[in-house]
Amino acid sequence: MQAKNILITGASQGIGAKTAEYLARQGAVVILVARNQQKLMDIQAKISGKSFIYSYDLNDLGNIQRIFDHCAGKGIKLHGMVHCAGVNRDVPIRSNDIGMMQETLTVNYMSFIELAKYFIRKKYSEIGGSIVAISSHATNIISAGMSSYTSSKAALEAAVKVMSKEFVKRGIRVNAIAPACVDTEMVADAPFMSEEIISGAQPLGIIEPVYISYLVDFLISDKSKYMTGAVIPVSAGNI
User: HEC states along the chain?
Assistant: First the structure.
């Protein structure tokens, strides 16, 4: 991981922030991407070593190339990318809101496709890189009110498998992690979730975000050089 350049979306909080901090401790140069500039600066202040921040809203699909041009402008050629950005707007289908559904699909799935489209280009990434997407155990354990979120993550997992076939020509591996409930702001704000419900469903408890970072580190590194197209569950016993 030493001196590898890793782009991390959703890096201002939750799994993205913990992943940025952990990979930086392993010697990576991390490029933090999220909407909130101040939150990015706060996370960057916790990181020892070299890091960069770039404020960007992934709802803007048409200009995602700017993220990669920003990296290239600083002489950064990427070795890896971790897509942690995600939104969850739980509503029953009878109350479905088209705008909320569109945002969920855009950030969780469609932006990942656009990010990967630019990452794969020779001007932006090195041969033999690695992409990791954060999916969700919600694709396996279905809950009420999560139609848009679950669908977006199922699409993400399908894209990972397709990319693993297409990107192998450049030696770039693509994998996903599908955690159950992680102790993040997004889970805390979900109306269908409570600590009592989560604890009952997950015998091993609510997952600490840093444990997802450990798995990201493995998948980004050469330790997993023969793994691609995998979706790895982290269920905490919710099976």
Answer: CCCCEEEEECCCCHHHHHHHHHHHHCCCEEEEEECCHHHHHHHHHCCCCCEEEEECCCCCHHHCHHHHHHHHHCCCCEEEEEECCCCCCCCCHHHCCHHHHHHHHHHHHHHHHHHHHHHCCCCCEEEEEEEEEECCHHHCCCCCCCHHHHHHHHHHHHHHHHHHHHHHHHCCEEEEEEECCECCHHHHHCCCCCHHHHHHHCCCCCECHHHHHHHHHHHHCHHHCCCCCCEEEECCCCC
Residue 182 is predicted with a pLDDT of 94
What's the confidence (pLDDT) of residue 19? 98
Alpha carbon distance 236, 8 (integer Å) = 24
Burial of 78: CB neighbours in 10 Å, binned 0-12, 13-18, 19+ = buried
Looking at the DSSP bridge assignments, the partners of residue 34 are: 55
List, for residues 134-156, the tens digit of each pLDDT value: 999 999 887 887 899 999 999 99
Residue segments in the chain with a per-residue pLDDT below the cut of 50: none
Strand partners, 83: 9, 133
